[in-house]
Amino acid sequence: MKIAFLGLGVMGGPMARHLAKAGHDVTVYNRTAGKAAAWLATHGGRSAATPAEAATGAEVVLACVGADSDLRAVTLGPQGAFDAMAPGSLFIDHTTVSAAIARELAEAGEGRGLLIVDAPVSGGQAGAENGALTIMCGGSAKAFAAAEPVMSAYARRIGHMGPAGSGQLTKMVNQLCIAGVLQGLAEGLAFGTAAGLDLGQVVDVISKGAAQSWQMENRSATMARGEYDFGFAVDWMRKDLGLALEEARRLGVSLPLAALVDQFYGDVQATGGGRQDTSSLLRRLVR
């Protein structure tokens, strides 16, 4: 298929690579042209100077950018992709953004005869690199059916969660659960350190029981060593928690733990840890 990919960050770059490896004809756009040039040097294909240029003639356009404003710019802004897309073509958004903009794009796309899927991902950079992402999708059944074969190039699990915005709402649930688990893990490791326990032994035992989690299996060892310069950044998690807390206010739902952990991440940012992994919550507790 002829595909355009907008945004070549730590997630978008690998996803676009998997699409090219699967045999698709990929044109890329990135706000920083040098990053697009570097991607082309390794993977081939073409680059475009604007989202509209990238989208012209494409059967599928995908985006993985930063926030609501970035997504609106590459879709509906001047030289945005939507005005260049042909009726019947497909737009898949992998950015983690608000449910409101997902619905806005679905409505705008419907008026242009486009198929729109909001499809935030979980699995981090490693999941993107290894083609093992979990993808939560919102949109019509027709749009999802068109998008699923495309996304299978880099996904381990793809779920259709409901109408437009449902993918973003599901991603919010995902991030809320991760935040709570990480805070609990940080407190457990801090307690174990103060008690003089061998954290390796502790984790080896309790990870075989009810305390087990992906975070424990994949982050406890690096947390115990004070290593955080990798993974999903605190800055990104605060953006995601902000989206969830804003949506919760709209829904009238109380999220006291999420609000507290968001403040704790603010403490980590204040000490220069904004680009560190989300497991750096332990920094607040062990000096």
Topology:
Layout lengths: L1 E5 L5 H10 L3 E5 L3 H11 L2 E2 L3 H5 L4 E4 L4 H8 L14 E4 L5 H13 L3 E4 L2 E2 L1 H7 L2 E6 L2 H11 L3 E8 L3 H29 L4 H8 L7 H11 L9 H18 L4 H15 L17
Parallel strand pairs: 1-2, 1-4, 2-3, 4-5, 5-6, 8-9
Antiparallel strand pairs: 7-8
Helix pairs in contact: 1-6, 8-10, 8-11, 8-12, 11-12
Report on the architecture of this protein.
The chain is an alpha/beta fold and 287 residues long. It has two domains: 2-163, 3-Layer(aba) Sandwich (Rossmann fold); 169-284, N-(1-d-carboxylethyl)-l-norvaline Dehydrogenase, domain 2 (Orthogonal Bundle). The protein is 51% helix and 14% strand. The protein is built from twelve helices and nine strands. The chain has helices at residues 12-21, 33-43, 51-55, 68-75, 99-111, 124-130, 141-151, 166-194, 199-206, 214-224, 234-251, 256-270, and strands at 2-6, 25-29, 46-47, 60-63, 90-93, 115-118, 121-122, 133-138, 155-162. The strands form two sheets. Strands 3-2-1-4-5-6 form a six-stranded parallel β-sheet, with helices on both faces. Strands 7-8-9 form a three-stranded mixed β-sheet. Helix 8 packs across helix 11 (234-251), helix 8 (166-194) packs across helix 12 (256-270) and helix 11 packs antiparallel against helix 12 (256-270).
